[in-house]
Amino acid sequence: QVQLAESGGGSVQAGGSLKLSCAASRYILCTMGWYRQAPGKERELVSTINSDGTTRYGDSVKGRFTISQDNAKNMLYLQMNSLKTEDTAVYYCRACAIYWGRGTQVTVSS
Fold first, then answer.
1. Cβ-proximal residues to 10 (8 Å cutoff; 6+ apart), any chain
2. How high is the pLDDT of residue 39?
């Protein structure tokens, strides 16, 4: 079992930045990622990072968000820049395609 805990969400104005963190309860070697779900919408991919460091981004965040990880600390990060109001959502950390965190709210105001 792996527990994931997100942090770093909050409220920010459009154009601002936030950095999300996800702490894993133990070391894991698998694909990790960030997903988000806005009210009334389906959960969608934000970004993933494979164990070899290969990254993938959703089209709506390319060039603005950066995923990274610190394996020594069992941490996953998401640096979000140039935030838009449409980035408002609950952001979830995911690991190994089966473990999910409880999410952290990101609200971007105009």
1. 18, 105, 106, 107
2. 92
